[in-house]
Amino acid sequence: MSQVTLPLAPNTPSASWRLLRRLARGTLSVVCTLLGLSALTFFIGRLLPIDPVVAIIGDNASQEAYDNMFHQLGLDQPLWQQFIDYIWQLLHLDFGMALTTSHPVAQDIARVFPATLELATVAAVIGVGLGIPAGVLAAMYRNTWFDHLIRFVGLLSYSTPHFWLGLMGLLLFYATLGWTGGPGRIDFLYEFDLQPVTGFWLIDSALSGKWAVFRNVFSHLILPASILGLSALAYISRMTRSFMLEQLSQEYIITARVKGLSWARCVWIHALRNIAVPTLTVVALSWAFLLEGAVLTETVFAWPGFGRYLTNALLAGDMNAVVGCTLLTGAIFVAINLLCDLLYRLFDPRTRQEGA
C-alpha cells in the first residue's frame, strides 16, 4: 500500500511572535506620534511673536545682557540644532524653567497635576455613575418622556458654556444657599491641618483621619466636579443609549423574550454585558477629555491644577510651560488609546483573531 504524503502546513507565526510584532508596531506608533507632537510644539513656539529673551530678562535690559541670554538659550544655533537639543532635553524629561514660577516645568506639573487628576476622576465617577444607567434606561424606554429628557439634558450640557455654569453654580450653591465651598481647593482655616502625601486631598485627609478637613475638601470639590462631569454624563449616556439600541434589536434578545425572559433581565444582564467593551472605551476617552477640558472650570473655581497652570502660562507667554503641558496632554491621550486597544484585545476574542 502506497503512503500518501500530505503537504506541510505553511509556517504560522507563534503567539509570542504575534505579540512581539504587535508590541513593536504599537511602540513605533507611539514614538512617531510623540515625535510629531514634539516637532509641532517646537516650531509653533518658534513662530509665535514672543521673544523668550525679553520674557526672561525684561524690556529694560541692556544689549549685552540680551545677547548673553540669547546665547545661553541656544537661539544663536541653527534651527535643526535647536530641535535636536530640544528633543534631547525632552528625553531627559527636561522642559526647561517656567517663567511664571522660576521652577522647572516638570516640577510644576508634578505639583499641580494631582489636583486636576482628582477633579477629573470625581467628575468621571459622576459621569459614569449617572451616564450609563441613564443611557440604558433611555434605550429601554425609547421615545418616552424619560428618553427625551435624557437627550435634552445631554444637548443642554453640550451647548451651555461650562464657565457660565460654574459662575451660576457658585452664585446659587455657594453664595446664596451655602451648600458647597467656594473657589479654591480648601478653606484657609483648614489648610494648615492638611498634610499632603499623595497630592489627592480627599485621600490625604481620610488617611490622616481628619474628617472635618475631608468634608471641607469635598465641599470645594463637588461643585466643579459636577459641572465638569456634565459633559462626561452627556457623552456617556448618548453612546450607551446608541450601543444598547443596537443590541436590543439583535436576534438573541428577541429569542430570549420569546423564551419568557423578563425585559429587565434581557437589558441589564445580557445586552449590557455585550456593550461592556465599547462602553469601557468611551469611559476611558471621556476621562482623558476631562483632564484636558478642565481649563475653564479650574479658572472659574480658582482650582490650583493643571488647567489653571496652563492658562497662566499662555497669558504670560511662558512657552516652556505651554510645551510641557501640551506634551503631557498628548502623552495621556496616546496612553489612553493604547490602554483601550489592549482592553479590546483582552475582552473581545474577535479582535485577537483579526490581529493574528
TrEMBL record:
A Gene Ontology molecular function term of the record: dipeptide transmembrane transporter activity
Keywords, alphabetical: Cell inner membrane, Cell membrane, Membrane, Transmembrane, Transmembrane helix, Transport
Lineage, opening ranks: Bacteria, Pseudomonadati, Pseudomonadota, Gammaproteobacteria, Enterobacterales
InterPro entries: BPD_transp_1_N (IPR045621), MetI-like (IPR000515), MetI-like_sf (IPR035906)
Keyword Cell membrane: yes
The ABC transmembrane type-1 domain, residue ranges: 113-344
Protein's name in the database: ABC transporter permease
TM spans (from-to): 23-44, 119-141, 162-182, 217-236, 275-301, 321-344
Gene3D superfamilies the record matches: MetI-like
Primary localisation category: membrane
Membrane topology listed for this record: Multi-pass membrane protein
Family affiliation: Belongs to the binding-protein-dependent transport system permease family.
Organism superkingdom: Bacteria
One Pfam family per UniProt: BPD_transp_1
PANTHER family linked: D,D-DIPEPTIDE TRANSPORT SYSTEM PERMEASE PROTEIN DDPB-RELATED, DIPEPTIDE TRANSPORT SYSTEM PERMEASE PROTEIN DPPB-RELATED
GO CC list: plasma membrane
Location within or outside the cell: Cell inner membrane; Cell membrane
